[in-house]
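Example record for the data management plan.
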Amino acid sequence: MTTTPTSSTAPVLRTAYQKSVAEYWNNEKDPVNLSLGDVDGLYHHHYGIGDYDPSVLEGPQETRDARIIEELHRLESAQADVLLDHLGPIAPEHRLLDAGCGRGGSSIMANARFGCQVDGVSISQQQVDFANGQARERGVDDKVRYHFRNMLDTGFPTGAFQGIWNNESTMYVDLFDLFSEHARQLAFGGRYVVITGCYNDVTGGRSKAVSRIDEHYTCNIHPRSAYFKAMAANGLVPMNVVDLTAATIPYWELRAQSSLATGVEDPFLTAYREGSFHYLLIAADRV
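Corresponding structural encoding:
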């Protein structure tokens, strides 16, 4: 059954920082996102995991870059599949929320897998419009809908969702505020999953490489411990914690060899290899 969401009366963009983030993503047309999505029409805004096929670096030079792009896209879709694996049992009558949905690829994958309604939210109107267009093209816009809303105050009903996820979007918000809103929206026993980069508390504050990542994406990467503190404060109990750091390094190694490299590849690889930065999946139940 389709549930009509409620509306928040507060403005979507509430701070100068949120406005700057929205402006960044409204203007973003990075080929590293668009060219990968062009492979099969699933447009992601996250990185990949798993070993890449070394054969993509071999063969005719004139098709080498196309092979790399297809392989990078396979790895990022594999990452989304791992996230969806951790949502638990989802039935067609359930409802899911993609918080910080980007151009919407993961929401479409979730609907294809579970057959349920999926709502995505973004503070970028351009992303929302693009994602809704993709849903229409695929004929799933009756089940997959994207909204120009702030994930810290979505206006959706309390307890409406069986599952919620953030895929590399938590570094733009306060975690205590975010998890408070997620806990409100999740049904009792519902599942929250986050995949994120976070800096390693053990090594101290942000390393130089992590600071360069922050600057590149206009974000504010949180320490690893902050996730668990904010979850504990909001009735979210971690059930699975998976360190994906080693699994994401091949993606960055391959991306560095493509025409789509943006210059941020070296900071990512440096931060991962030196141990100052972790790539984590945390799945938590609402209790």
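Summary line stored alongside the record: The mean pLDDT is 95.
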